[in-house]
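Tutorial, part two.
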Amino acid sequence: MEQVSRLLVFALILSLCSVGFAGEITLKNGDRLTGNIVEESDDAIVIETAYAGKLKIERKHIEKVSRPVTLPKTANLDVPQPAPSSSRSAPAVIKAKPSSGFVGKMKAIATGWDGNANIGFSYTSGNSNNITMTTGLRASKSRPQDGFTIYARSLWNSNHVVSSTTQNAFWGGARYDRTIDKRLFGFVSYDFERDKPKNLKFRSVAGGGLGHRTIKNDRTELEFLGGIAWNRTWQTNIDTNTPEALAGMTFRHRINDKLRFQNATTFFQNVTDVNEFRAIFDATLSIDATKKVGFYISVGDRFNSDPFGTSKKNDFLFTTGMRWNFGKKK
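Running the prediction step on this input gives:
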């Protein structure tokens, strides 16, 4: 009877020891084994599971071994060790401190722009004594839900013999697009223009409407626009306010890695007078000499069916020069 009691006590001690060595083995293929680790060596680990008994796993197949509680080698087997906790501590997640509202919004607007700036200059003397300078800027920012586009151009021409400025025009604008679905988007736009020698002090045109991305891929983009606008014009001795209907088209095509073509055409129809309308046309062919520097040829035309005073209806512009790309190269 005394021997039977000793055997029972020894079995109880072994049971307590096995509980102390509970753990989990993660294999390199992603499988996990949970049970009591009963034997370890440099080559293998023996784990006893409730569903498959003892399993011998070679070290070369083991990714890691997790032991919630590890008993020291000098532990007194007569003293039962506490069972390992079944809960695991979740790893701490450090969250980045968000930027302040205003600073974060300004930073988001200021970054991520792509585009180019260009300049052209010519000087003639003799039978023709003219100085001409043109500048331009176009930039865009595209995000999954919306996008921005801004542009600006200037033209200055002067006869340097009689000191007469024949052209001093500056025009530009901006457009914000908001995606409605894969093809359809809404937009708001603002365009302005000034040409002092032609008595156009300032023209301000605010508009909005819907657009359709008919083609959009890595090489070609084609969009159609339609909406309404309000034309506020300040001219010498006369100011006008005109509601207009607008329709437009933008086309961009990458011919190859260096050669690109883009065109924008917008038509404005006076709602109160069908005989009065305006049209704006711009087309540019550019070639990149390097990733940042290239050359361009640009053609522009501005038509007004009812110009002020003695101004002509049509203004045609042909320019060429250098351009500088910024942002990521598309």
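Confidence is low (pLDDT under 50) at residues 14-20, 73-77, 85-94. In part three we will examine how such features are distributed along the chain.
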